[in-house]
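pasting for ref
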Amino acid sequence: MSITTDRLASLIQRELAPIVNAEVKDKSFGYINLTEVKVTKDLSFSTIFYSILSDDPKVLERAKNALEDAKVAIRMELAKKIKNTRKIPDLIFKYDEALAYGNRIDKILKTIK
């Protein structure tokens, strides 16, 4: 990543966190935490990794659907906040499995003791 993509990724993550939680209408899964943002070199796509507190597959699916439904509104709000770029990248939301993986490892270690 170059300086431009790093700065844009950081700016997107900072500005996007409150927008995502305001625009997502389904609050049954709680707060959505944005863990990382990656922007492609040509600044056309940004992959946003998110996590929620539940590992239930039904809850994860509802969160994914809620983010996909609100994607256009989220991108429009982001464009209002970030004015110094010519183009706002398309948003791709992906669930960050690191927290779930860590919890699974923790459970395994507790059963070993």
